[in-house]
Each structure stands twice: as C-alpha cells, then as structure tokens.
From TrEMBL:
This is DUF418 domain-containing protein. The lineage of its organism: Bacteria, Pseudomonadati, Pseudomonadota, Betaproteobacteria, Burkholderiales. Residues 334-349 have a biased composition (Basic and acidic residues). The chain crosses the membrane at residues 35-53, 73-95, 116-133, 139-155, 181-198, 210-232, 274-292, 401-419, 431-453, 473-494, 514-532, 544-562. Residues 325-349 are annotated as: Disordered. Keywords: Membrane, Transmembrane, Transmembrane helix.
Length: 597
C-alpha cells in the first residue's frame, strides 16, 4: 500500500521525527470555518435539547403521538430540517480540521502523527467523561474513533492493520467486551478505504485491468451474489435474503464506481466519502419501497407471537433470578441451557416469522422498561444515581460508539478534500462552486426531507408497512446535500458585502466550539434533570426558546472571553495535550504609552 495522500504532496514530512509544530496563530485561522462551526453548534443544540427532556433510548421513533400544536411544528422543523444536517456539518468540519493540521505539518516540515494521536486520545477522554458525567448522546467519543480511522486510511500499513484486528478480536472474547468486534470491523473497513485512496496497483481480472481495490470488491460481489441466489432457492437460508442481496449490490456498485472513478487521485477523497455515505441509504430506499408495499401490521397483532414472547420472557426472568441468587450467595452461576433446534424438524416460514415476531416483542418491551427507568432516574434521581446509571449503560457496550465512525468517516473524507483541494482555504476564489452547491444541494436535500415527511413522521415499535424505514432512508440520503448547501450558504454570506456578512458574529462562538458544546450539556443537564432544577419534559417549542436564549448568551460570552484570552478553556487544555506544551492563554496587552507611541 502506498503512502502518498496526494502525489504532489508526499507525507514523509508529516511522520518524520522532527520538532513538533505549534498551535495555529490567530492570523492563520480560516474565518469561514469558525463561522460554520458556530452555525453548526446552533443546530446541534436545537437537536440535542430534545434528548435532555426525553430518554435517549427512544431515539429514532420520530414525533411522539402526544405532541400537538406549536410543539408539533417545532419538532417537525428540527426533525426534518435540522437533525442529521448539523451532525454532518460537524463531521465535515472535523475532517477539515484534520487536513488543516496535516497541511501545516507538511508546509513547515514538522511532525504530525504523535501530536495528532495525543489529540485523539484527549478527544476520547473528553467524550468519555461527557458521556458518563452529563449525557449519553455525546459525539466526541465517536469522533475519536473516526479520527483514529482517518489515521489508518492515510498512514496505516497492512501488517499493522491486520495485527490490530487480531488483537481487538482477542479482546472481544473478554467478559463484557464483545462490543470490540465493532472495532475489528471498523479497522478492516478503514483499511479497505486506504486501499482505494492510496494504492495504485492495477491487476488483470476476467480479462480486464482493474485497480486492486476494484478487483477485490468484484470478487467479493461475485461470491456474495452466489450466496444471495442460494438464499432465494434454499428455504433454510431465507433469513439472509435481504442482507445478502443488498450486500452483493453494494460490492458490485463499489467495484464499478471505484474502477470508473479511480482517477484523478486527489478526487478519491470526496468520491469515497460520497459513496460511503450515500450507498447504504440508496439500498435502504429500495428495501424501504418494498417494505412499504406490505400491508400495515404489528407484531402485537399475532396471538401466537405474543404467547411465545411471554413464554420466552418467563424463562429469561427465571435464568436472571437464578444468576442473581447465585451471585448473592457466592455460589457458581448456573450455566444456561441452550435449547438447540432439532435439525430433523423443518420449520415453516410462518413458524419462523412467529419466532422473529416474539423476539421483536420482547426487545420492544425490554426497551420500554429501560425507557421508563431512564426517565425516572433523570427526572427524580440524584446526580450520583444518574452517573451510576450512565456508567452501567456505557459498560454494556463500551465500544458501541465506534459504530458511528462508519458514517462519520465519509464526512471526514469529504472535509479533507475541501482543504486539500484548497476549496475552503481559498474560499473567495471558489465562490462560484459554493453557489452551485447551494443551488442544487438545498432543493435536493429539502425535497428529500419533505418527501420523507409526507410518508411518515413517527413510528410505533413493532409496526411494519407504515413507511418509516423508507422515510428514514430518504431523510438520511438528503442530509448530505443539505449539509453541503448549508456550508456553502454560510461561506457565501461570510464573503458577502451585504448585511449577510454580519454572520461573522458567530466566529468567536465557533472558535470555542468544544467549550460551548460541553457548556451546553452542562447547562441543559443542570436545568432539566432532577438533580438540578428539575424541568425535565419541557415542551418542544419552549425547548427551542430556551436554546436560543442560551446560544445568545454563549455568543456574548465567547466574544468577551476571546477579547481577553487566546483560546476557550477546553480548547486551551486540548491544545496543551496535543502540542505537549502549555500555550499562552491570556492576551498580553502593551502599556497604554507603548500603544500610542
């Protein structure tokens, strides 16, 4: 695997053992990025505040059935024009930040890898503490994994990638560490992206010359297509029809696109990012259309499934009670007796469906119990109760957050391209491109959002045929063009000579993005949770009013703070860890007579 990010800009200088570089000076900052970051923080707040007033375990169910009037309108606005759009902007900005830091290291000939690893570790620690001490919807912990994945993509060598996967696979067998399999898959996934972006090897396959990555995707697609065909022919494999068929289509698509769009090399970043982000949702739309054709039904309408679910729950409760009793008495925990299906008995499709529905019923009911417990602790529990509850949730799957890296890495790659191609660093020279992105991206993104909302705005767990899957796939598909359009509009406003240029007032707010993001969580937890002021369950419209008020105060605070200090408090800590020295914080002002002489 080659190690050149851009044929014209080798990375050797970025990994050399030479003096580390220093934090970016004020006069080197990209003003548009700070404004975009501040704009993104507003959308993040609008989205997150709902989940300080509602259990995060209810995420993905849409507008609650008991919401009406102005609260319904506020929820609709956020769900279809904010949620998902600003998370993608934040991810895009992280990719841009990575590329800016890398580009500066190349230009100055100073080391990059060690400072950035420290930066990732610090980000992960911030995110971990944020998750446990304040809120489970944190994105920093996930971004730490994504940033590590970006290092794999740009600098990883195959022997280390495979060795890491082997070590992580071993860790996954430890008690309560099975979520490490997410890291195993993620590391392999990043390695394959690296193969596409950095490898120039051409191989012959089926009489055609293909890039190595394309050839691998084609072989996997062929093998998976055989398995998919078998799943439609062999009744015992019927459960794998959709994933195998969708997987085969995905690999064939990646093989075709990666071969056709392999050159130029510098375009691989945005092409890989766009494909990685969009392909799962495009396939999801297809399956969503198929599911939408089925009649409206609920798993709870099947008496056989409800009965079987109750029987399974009785057995599970008995096993858990026996485990607790054994643990309390210090005796060895009883081994669970795994009931194996008789291979001689061939189950009908109807029987399989009843079993699937029964398992789904139990999952839904268990989640509802967890939601009730979550709401009770958040609304009435002490701070110690909440922290203990969050810690227990985290330990159930400590690496589950890494799964979000799959989606975020696509935006990181597009962000890297924006910087490497100098689109954002020399934005004034590319205003025509930003106009085109806004002109096409906004109608496409908003159009998909409106279309999705016309299909379904909420979902009852266990329902099928309600169009929820299709609506969500369309909504997610529209997030990327909307995100790019929002970014483009902000860039155009920053470079405008009209009143719109006043949006630069958000720059200090964005410069202190980490501080303000964590401050938002602290304010919301203190105001809404039972251990604070106890306003849990505030109406959605009031939530947005509260958010606007807090954002206004944060903007004023950011201007005040940066008028006296070089960095926000958390930014200062982050830079100290990244560059491994204590940067000057306070702005030293010359005496008055020196300023006037």
């Amino acid at each position: 695997m080659e190690h050149s990010l851009d044929p014209a800009r080798p990375l050797s200088s970025a990994v050399g053992a030479i003096p580390e570089f220093r934090p970016v000076a004020d006069n080197e900052r990209i003003q548009a990025l700070d404004v975009i970051r501040g704009f993104a923080l507003i959308g993040i707040f609008f989205m997150n505040i709902e989940w300080f007033n509602r259990s995060f375990l209810d995420f993905g169910s849409g507008i609650p059935a008991n919401v009406h009037g102005i609260d319904w309108l506020a929820t609709y606005f956020v769900n279809f024009f904010v949620a998902g759009k600003f998370w993608t902007i934040f991810s895009l900005l992280f990719g841009m930040g990575f590329a800016v830091m890398l580009t500066r290291s190349e230009d100055t000939g100073r080391a990059f890898i060690k400072p950035y690893i420290r930066r990732i570790i610090a980000l992960g620690i911030f995110g971990l503490l944020h998750t446990i001490l304040l809120w489970p919807g944190d994105i920093l912990f996930s971004y730490a994994f994504t940033a590590a994945g970006l290092l794999i993509i740009l600098f990883g060598k195959w022997k280390w990638i495979l060795a890491s996967m082997a070590v992580l696979a071993g860790i996954s067998f430890a008690p309560n560490m099975d979520s490490a399999w997410v890291l195993v898959g993620g590391t392999g996934f990043m390695g394959m992206i690296a193969l596409f972006i950095r490898n120039e090897k051409i191989v012959s396959l089926f009489g055609k010359k293909l890039p190595l990555f394309s050839a691998i995707m084609l072989v996997v697609g062929v093998l998976m297509s055989f398995a998919a065909i078998a799943s439609w022919v062999v009744p015992a494999m019927s459960d794998g029809r959709n994933p195998l068929t969708g997987g085969a289509v995905a690999f064939f698509t990646m093989a075709f696109c990666s071969a056709k769009f392999h050159q130029p090399a510098e375009a691989r970043f945005w092409r890989a990012g766009a494909l990685i982000y969009s392909l799962p949702f495009v396939i999801g739309v297809v399956f969503g259309v198929i599911a939408y054709q089925k009649p409206l039904s609920s798993v709870f309408n099947s008496p056989d499934a409800v009965k079987l679910a109750a029987e399974k729950m009785v057995i599970k409760n008995a096993e858990e009670a026996a485990e607790k009793l054994a643990k309390a008495s210090g005796k060895p925990q009883p081994k669970k007796e795994e009931k194996k299906d008789d291979k001689k008995v061939v189950k009908t499709e109807a029987q399989k469906k009843i079993e699937r529905d029964a398992d789904n019923i139990n999952r839904i009911q268990e989640n509802q119990q967890k939601i009730l417990k979550d709401v009770q602790i958040l609304s009435t529990g002490s701070y110690a109760d909440v922290v203990q509850h969050r810690l227990e949730e985290f330990l159930e799957g400590p690496f589950n957050a890494a799964g979000q890296a799959f989606g975020a890495i696509a935006l990181f790659l597009i962000g890297v391209w924006f910087v490497r191609a100098k689109i954002i660093t020399k934005a004034a020279e590319h205003l025509a491109l930003f106009r085109q992105i806004a002109l096409f991206g906004l109608p496409i993104g908003w159009g998909l959002s409106l279309f999705a909302s016309s299909i379904a705005v909420s979902h009852t767990p266990g329902m099928s045929g309600d169009g929820w899957q299709l609506a969500q796939m369309l909504l997610n598909l529209g997030n990327l063009p909307t995100c790019l359009a929002y970014v483009s509009i902000i860039v155009l406003m920053v470079h405008s000579s009209s009143v719109f240029s006043k949006i630069q007032v958000l720059a200090p707010f964005g410069r202190m993005a980490l501080t303000n993001y964590l401050m938002q969580s602290l304010i919301q937890a203190s105001f809404f949770y039972g251990w604070g002021l106890g306003n849990f369950g505030m109406g959605r419209a009031q939530q947005l009013g509260f958010a606007i008020a807090v954002i206004g105060l944060q903007i004023l605070f950011s201007h005040w703070w940066l008028g006296r200090f070089r960095y926000g408090p958390m930014e200062w800590v982050w830079r100290a860890i990244t560059y491994w020295h204590i940067p000057a914080l306070k702005i030293e002002r010359l005496p008055y007579h020196h300023q006037t002489t």
